[in-house]
Amino acid sequence: MKALLLSLLVLQTAHTMAAVSFAPAQNYPNIGFLFPNLTNAKADPIPMPMAQTYVFTDDNTMRREDRFEPFELWYANQCCARWNDAQGNRLVVGRMTSRLPLFDEEYVSRKRFADELADDANRIDPDKEADINEWVATFVNATVYKPQKRKVNAFNLDEVRAYPCDATNLLVYALRPRRIGNAKNFDWFCVTLQVSDATDPKALRETFESTFIGQIALPNRASLDEGAHSEKVSTASRDEKPAGLSDDPVCIDARKSIENYDAWWFAETDGYIILSDINTDVGKTVIKEMQTSLPRLRAAYEKLVPPFTQERDVSLIRLFQKRDDYVKYVGKDMAWTGGVWMPGRRELVLVLGESTAELLRVIQHEAFHQYLSYAYCMIPTAPWMNEGHACLFENATVSKKGKVTLSEDANAYALLTANLDQAVLLLPRLFEADYGAFYAGNSLERRLKYAMAWGLAYYLQKGAPQERNTPFKNILSDYAASLAQSHNFLEATHKAFAEIDMSVFQDNFREFWLKRRASAMQFDPLEE
């Protein structure tokens, strides 16, 4: 009986230890020391902080300011990296440099936050235990208690503190690596391990202290810069001088969010920064196309849909290799998509599909949504206008000389003209639709609404400007002017069509697609 109980105990302990395993230690040059990661760890980059839009109007000019929850900005600044494994375990490493600044407002701008963070009053004093404890309690999503000093790896670590907490599946440690020679002192770090199965917390803690903390080491001087970190991908030729890194706050935050992941890389081009974990050979092909086309397309966006302000925002694009990672990031509601603009996060998120050509079409579609959000100060726009122009630019081509051509969408044209009478009757309902109504229905119904929206954008940009006896050429500019004032896309639609006889508009729309499409194909609104 005793042998059986002992055997069961050994099996239980082995199961607990097997639930979490660590790979050999490797160096993380941006962190400053070597440590073992979870076996087959997958990086979990922090998303961009959720933005709140503030629009200010002064002397008929508009200005937008993004503001954020201070905690989100602070956490992204203090967190070095996060990883998950296939068993659902999670490892997080944070660097203690500053406490969370306090503000009277719920949301603050990046600049306001950065100024407060740089204040000496918010600097962590590494010799004050109260500062360390406060930082840990703020960083960890659990209630922690008075720490216990642990004698582990004294050769490489000056001190290790274990923080008991109210979550039995969470280990929380603060540690400070030992200074090497005359080098400056290390900051304190916080390491947390959250496990999916903690049947024996004591065994888990012992395993973590021996296989993780006990394996932390300091790199030798020759290999300080070697190890796991993200890289910049450049498509410049050998004779071209590599461009410097942008100092825009969005670019700085984006690069920091992936800097300790060797599976991730970034690329920058005029007005854009791209983060990705796809194979770099495939990535270079996609990035070269994007670096060539996106700045040209943005100029075309600005020509046909002028922005409300002259501010220039850096657009962030995140490109995943695997659909599972993409779905986890965008959420189940968007699982059916291949790309989506997330305005709250200010991120255009995409997944690599089977076809590079199809991916570039998706990029061009979603990049217009991204542009329009910035151009219209994050004021929501009507789906007929937003989706219509996104579909219009989805089919654009960019020549080697940079000329943008707005080609027809053969599939949308075929679907629209095959259902033209029904589409014409449904136009008033399309103008009244919000996004819930636009995306509602079965696949065929959604496809028809997209085709109608594309047909409207194509007609208003390439057909109506050639008409002499109709006021339809002013619909888009009237819509934009009204939206800037009302901030309500339905009201803006009503005002844009206030002087329009809808039955006449419907007749002209039908006649255009039946008889006058050929002249529109030769018309280039980008050269007007």
Could you walk me through the main structural features you see in this protein, from its secondary elements to its overall organization?
β6 and β7 form a beta hairpin. This protein is of the alpha+beta class and 528 residues long. The longest helix has 25 residues. The chain is built from 17 helices and 19 strands. The termini are far apart. It has three domains: 197 residues; 113 residues, Glutaredoxin; 150 residues. It is elongated.
> What amount of the residues lies in strands?
15-25%
What is the total domain count? 3
Structural class of the helices, strands and pairings?
alpha+beta
Measure the end-to-end span.
Answer: 91 Å
- Mean of all residue-level pLDDT scores: 91
Rg, nearest Å? 28 Å
Q: Count the strands?
A: 19
Q: How many distinct helices?
A: 17
Biggest sheet, open or closed, and with what strands and sense? 7 strands, antiparallel
**Helical amount among residues, as a percent range?**
40-55%
Low-confidence stretches: 1-18
- Please state the overall shape, judged from the principal axes of the Cα atoms: elongated
**Numbering strands along the chain, what is their spatial order in the largest sheet?**
3-6-7-11-10-9-8
